[in-house]
Design goal:
Elements (H helix, E strand, L loop, with lengths): L4 E13 L6 E3 L21 E2 L2 E2 H7 L6 E4 L23 E3 L5 E3 L5 H11 L2 E6 L6 H12 L5 H8 L10 E4 L12 H13 L10 E8 L3 H14 L7 E9 L9 H12 L1 H15 L6 E9 L18 H16 L6 E5 L9 E3 L4 E3 L1 H8 L7 E8 L2 E3 L2 H7 L11 E2 L1 E8 L2 E8 L6 E7 L6 E7 L18 E10 L2 E6 L3 E8 L2
Parallel strand pairs: 1-21, 2-5, 2-13, 5-8, 8-9, 9-10, 10-11, 11-12, 12-13
Antiparallel strand pairs: 1-16, 3-4, 6-7, 14-15, 16-19, 17-18, 19-20, 20-25, 21-24, 22-23, 22-25, 23-24
């Protein structure tokens, strides 16, 4: 009989509180995300309230979505907020130049987005246009949303149906300004950021957090030079957050891949650990008290676009492999809860690694949706140190290449046979574990140090085939399964993790 692997949990060694913002979402005007993913026009047969789909709200509300980023993405730096307010019939039509030259009706704008956020219980995170609009446009948008007094903009908001201020806290000052947001150098963007943030005012009762465009992947140069320029000009303290982007990409296609490609993609996914530790290390040189928060406001897989969908729509299916990417990534976020403040998976509906696949007739929960559901118990709890004693099954050339540099943290160890995280809330322990191997189970001992565990409730996300996914015809092919209780002995739980599975254990410590 083989010796079981071990997952060691140290409940008396806290890391930090797991900010609910680490489970954030992202919604861009892209493909079929907004129309018809969230919003349908008058006369649609889809049940809705003022255009907001009932089935989508009902699906998302149980997740307790913490924060939702909007309207982009690349779309943000071509978006003019005034196009999306006032009577729908008089709103300007624009060309969505980044995403297939589609017509943007602007029927879904500031008020509709805020109504959607309220309906699912999410906090709003706006990405403002730095690339193609003057600073006054951002200034006016913030006043329109956040000022409660007597001004032309505040009164215009009231005339459009919102008496009280929206109180939007999070404001991105541009997006990907190293690319689609202006192709700027870090020092050039630092100057533009300084100018724009000057006119991003706090109004009474509505303080804002200004979020700067951070790096792509392991572009340490962007982080270093941007922060250096702001430190030199004396404006470093104006930055509330620095938003990095990291996509694991693909290996094969969304639904067709070999076992080797399965491991390749998961190896790329866990490289996000080096991105977090590397950029946080650079930031600590400038900001040792960590007053500037690190965000990852775009992350996830990026597969070839599915045929038969809008050009530039980035529609892709979502399998148990994507679920494992999500689980591994969220576990890394928890294990670095002291370094990371917010994260927003790309994207919410119908685009990239989405939670829902929606059309005029159906609303399907993806395997990634079920991971966010499974991991809800971690939100707001205290992450504690854990150690996975497992063999490394693949480093992945792409993974290694993204993180090999002076800032690569020693904690990055490649793709383990299983990986996980643990948190404590009162005397309740939550542990989540991903068996990253596509075909082999893991015999596992979960050992809780200095505490007794009598039993644990187990819920698993797994599938008979590593290519399995959900469709309108088979919406529950990949779904959560409660496995009941397992007994513990002397603080040790013994369990077998199914191949290619995401698992949660809840237990009381005595």
């Amino acid at each position: 009989m083989s010796t079981p692997s071990r997952f060691l949990i140290f409940p008396t060694e806290p890391i930090a509180e797991i900010n609910p913002y680490l489970h954030g979402q992202f919604a861009e005007h892209l493909g079929e995300l907004i129309y018809p993913g969230i919003f349908v026009d008058q006369g649609s047969k889809v049940a809705n309230t003022a255009g907001i789909r009932h089935d989508v709200v009902e699906a998302l509300k149980p997740l307790g979505v913490s924060v939702l980023r909007w309207p982009g993405g690349c779309f943000a730096d071509t978006y003019h907020w005034r196009d999306g307010i006032g009577p729908v019939a008089s709103r300007k039509k624009r060309v969505n130049v980044h995403w297939g030259m589609a017509t943007e009706s602007n029927h879904f704008g500031t008020h509709e987005f805020m109504a959607f956020c309220r309906s699912i219980g999410a906090e709003a995170y706006f990405a403002a246009n730095l690339g193609s609009a003057p600073p006054a446009e951002t200034r006016d948008w913030i006043e329109y949303c956040n000022f409660g007094g007597d001004s032309t903009l505040a009164n215009e908001r009231r005339a459009n149906g919102q008496d009280e201020p929206f109180g939007v806290k999070f404001w991105g000052i541009g997006n990907e300004n190293w690319g689609c947001g202006g192709n700027m150098s870090p020092t050039q963007y630092a100057g533009e950021y300084s100018k724009y943030q000057t006119f991003a005012f706090n109004y009474p009762g509505a303080p804002i957090t200004k979020i700067a465009c951070g790096p792509c992947d392991s572009n340490w140069n962007w982080t270093t030079r941007f922060l250096s320029a702001l430190a030199e000009s004396g404006h470093l303290r104006t930055v509330g957050g620095l938003a990095a982007h990291y996509y694991a990409g693909t290996a094969g296609t969304a639904t067709q891949y070999t076992e080797s490609q399965w491991l390749e993609l998961l190896s790329k996914a866990v490289a996000i650990e080096g991105i977090i530790t590397g950029h946080r290390a650079i930031m600590d040189d400038f900001d040792p008290n960590r007053e500037i928060k690190l965000l990852l406001d775009e992350w996830g897989t990026w597969h070839p676009v599915q045929t038969g969908k809008p050009t530039g729509g980035l529609y892709q299916q979502n399998t148990i492999r994507d679920a494992c990417v999500a689980g591994l990534t969220l576990d890394i976020f928890h294990n670095h809860a002291d370094k990371l403040y917010m994260a927003n998976i790309a994207q919410l509906i119908n685009v990239l690694q989405s939670l829902l696949l929606v059309d005029e007739n159906s609303c399907v929960k993806t395997p990634t949706y079920h991971v966010f559901d499974l991991y809800r118990s971690h939100k707001g709890a205290t992450a504690v140190r854990s150690v996975a004693e497992a063999d490394i099954i693949s480093h992945g050339e792409a993974s290694e290449g993204r993180c090999k540099n002076q800032y690569r943290d020693h904690v990055f160890s490649g793709l383990g046979r299983f990986q996980g995280s643990a948190s404590i809330r009162g005397n309740v322990l939550c542990a989540t574990l991903v068996n990253a191997h596509p075909t082999e189970p893991v015999e596992l001992e979960i050992a809780v140090k200095n505490a007794a565990v009598e039993f644990a409730d187990v819920v698993t996300l797994a599938a008979p085939d590593i290519h399995d996914h959900n469709t309108a015809e088979e919406p529950n092919r990949v779904t959560l399964t409660a496995s009941g209780k397992i007994s513990g002995t002397n603080g040790v739980l013994r369990v077998a993790l199914a191949p290619a599975s995401v698992n949660r254990f809840l237990c009381e410590l005595t």
